[in-house]
Amino acid sequence: MAGKSTLLLVLCLLLSAAAKDRDLKQVLILSRHNIRAPLSSNLRYLSNKTWPTWEVEPGFLTAKGALLERQIGNYISNWLIGNGLLPAGCPDQNDIHVYANTKQRTRKTAKAFVDGAFQNCNITVYSKNSTKMDPIFNPIIRNSSLDLKLAILSEMERSLNSLNLRNAYAKLNDIVDLEHADICRIEGVCDFQTAREDLVYDIDDEPNVRGPLSFTNSIVDAFLMSYYEGMQIDDVAWGHINSPEDWKLFTPIIRGNLDVRFNGTILSKEVAKPLLNYVYNILKDDSKKFTLLVGHDSNLYSVMAAIGIKPYNLPEQYELTPIGGKIVFQKWHDARTGKSLLKIEYIYQSTSQLRNGEMLTESNLPKRVTLAVKNCDVDNEGLCPWDEFLEILKHTFE
Ligand SMILES: *[C@@H]1O[C@H](CO)[C@@H](O)[C@H](O)[C@H]1NC(C)=O
Ligand SMILES: *[C@@H]1O[C@H](CO)[C@@H](O)[C@H](O)[C@H]1NC(C)=O
Ligand SMILES: *[C@@H]1O[C@H](CO)[C@@H](O)[C@H](O)[C@H]1NC(C)=O
Ligand SMILES: *[C@@H]1O[C@H](CO)[C@@H](O)[C@H](O)[C@H]1NC(C)=O
Ligand SMILES: *[C@@H]1O[C@H](CO)[C@@H](O)[C@H](O)[C@H]1NC(C)=O
């Protein structure tokens, strides 16, 4: 293990020496937590079949999730050290800021990352001591303006109407045996294809949907988590998901749910305002070399939508904000021009790296995809001017 890390480090040092005219100056990661037990305690309401049991409470990080997070933490710290941003060995606590939302899964993910990245170093993981969502990470509507409500609802409706999930819904009717579920008996929701969908818009709440999209989202999320957790294939969707094609049929439900709830241009700025402001202050201030913020897919989605990240694909993944995935904001200094540049990458583990709990080594690296900002022109290496980006970021919350 130590041998492999050292080898990786040497490799990174060699690679970075080859491109020495650009120096890495600052990194801020906005991360989703790693594998958790399904959130929905009402899965039994959605299907009367026997759901797999989990060793942790609903919504808690699993032991495997922590293991995967330690691995990606170790990979990222080697990359930071290889590029000279952090020293080998323990970094100075003053250079590092690790901050997680209040949920168990976000705290424990941050802790696991730090354990993997800065093993045996005394690095603090901050999170508010509260059972409520930390306001910085809480993607809720705060502004009670009626105009805003109408504008956001119209975005949500447009996005909802653009989804085409009929085939997935039809298959899920059968897979969960909806006709024999309590939701059918009690509420008359016996067919996801025809059940009504309501948009939910309340002040101090997350924008939401209630209907087939949210019901099937809970179901597919539970399938996906069991798959990542490495459960026997017969225990994933009761053996009904056997191929990449099956996942490609069902995972648009997860994307669609996030698209309606967190991808709107106006909506995203409203719900992500505190986090955008927080990220801006860290990037502008420059006092921390490395920041890790651990939140939720809703945070990543709304921040990307607000900034205007161009549509992207993540190879070997079905999700657009995969479990444990990280948006990595990087500030590079170009010695030739004296200018600072921004690079944004998505760093994530592939579906099979997650399911198989694969070690990350130089021959099995996590995936990296460069993201582009709509209004920031990039050079041929995917970097845009830092100051231009800060202006764009500032306009998202001001
Ligand atoms: C760890 O760091 C904290 C604050 O940064 C400090 O209070 C504590 O004494 C340190 N512990 C060790 C063992 O160095
Ligand atoms: C967190 O808050 C609770 C209740 O207010 C308190 O009992 C507990 O000591 C606090 N924990 C820490 C680590 O400050
Ligand atoms: C609330 O939204 C309205 C409509 O977009 C806007 O005019 C107003 O400035 C916003 N209020 C605050 C406090 O942001
Ligand atoms: C749900 O399953 C239980 C036994 O597992 C059975 O007694 C009950 O009748 C089932 N409910 C429906 C609505 O089919
Ligand atoms: C989010 O919205 C943008 C347009 O604003 C669109 O191009 C993109 O496909 C949407 N993302 C998803 C996952 O639907």
From TrEMBL:
Cleavable signal peptide: 1-19
Catalytic activity from the UniProt record: a phosphate monoester + H2O = an alcohol + phosphate
UniProt xrefs under Pfam families: His_Phos_2 (PF00328)
Domain of life: Eukaryota
GO molecular function: acid phosphatase activity; sugar-phosphatase activity
This protein's UniProt keywords: Signal
Membrane-spanning residues: none
Annotated family: Belongs to the histidine acid phosphatase family.
Protein name as catalogued: Glucose-1-phosphatase
Organism of provenance: Leptosia nina
